[in-house]
């Protein structure tokens, strides 16, 4: 199995590392030609405005849309999910429109509102668990024929 990870900006290295740990062939994707022969694509978290601009600059948008229409599975995490959405509230970012959802960027505040705290989670044992709360998107609406399980 060959999984491409969009490597324009954001957490692409972490996604590639975890796929390698799972013994999956993971390849960084920066150019349209690097999308050929993939069994799936991951659009990682990062900054959705930057990723969107870089996808446009490197002519990746139309190729990703074509591959999705032909059945290529695509996973978006954080900024990747934002870019897969049909609609992004309060944003100038042009989404790919591949997932029939409406999302809101920075739904929990801007970067300056991000914080870390220790959490007590009995299921994980007595040692406090580091909770990291960052700006993140929210799916505001799941539209028409989307099925959630």
Automatic annotation (TrEMBL):
Keywords annotated in UniProt: Glutamine amidotransferase, Hydrolase, Lyase
EC main group: hydrolase
Recorded catalytic activity of this chain's protein: L-glutamine + H2O = L-glutamate + NH4(+)
Annotated EC: 3.5.1.2
Pfam families given in the database record: SNO
Record-level Gene Ontology MF annotations: glutaminase activity; lyase activity
Any GO CC annotation of this UniProt entry: cytosol
GO biological process, one term: pyridoxine metabolic process
InterPro entries: Class_I_gatase-like (IPR029062), PdxT/SNO (IPR002161), PdxT/SNO_CS (IPR021196)
Family membership: Belongs to the glutaminase PdxT/SNO family.
Protein name from the UniProt record: glutaminase
Organism encoding this protein: marine sediment metagenome
Lineage: unclassified sequences, metagenomes, ecological metagenomes
């Amino acid at each position: 199995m060959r999984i491409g990870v969009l490597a324009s900006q954001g957490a692409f290295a972490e996604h590639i590392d975890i796929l390698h740990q799972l013994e999956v062939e993971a390849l960084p994707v920066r150019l349209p030609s690097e999308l050929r022969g993939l069994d799936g694509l991951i659009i990682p978290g990062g900054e959705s405005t930057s990723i969107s601009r870089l996808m446009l600059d490197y002519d990746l948008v139309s190729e990703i849309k074509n591959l999705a229409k032909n059945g290529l599975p695509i996973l978006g995490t954080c900024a990747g999910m934002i870019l897969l959405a049909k609609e992004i509230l309060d944003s100038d970012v042009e989404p790919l429109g591949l997932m029939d959802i409406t999302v809101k960027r920075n739904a929990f505040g801007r970067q300056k509102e991000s914080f870390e705290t220790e959490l007590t989670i009995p299921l994980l044992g007595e040692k406090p668990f580091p909770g990291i709360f960052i700006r993140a998107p929210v799916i505001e609406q799941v539209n028409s024929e989307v099925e959630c399980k």
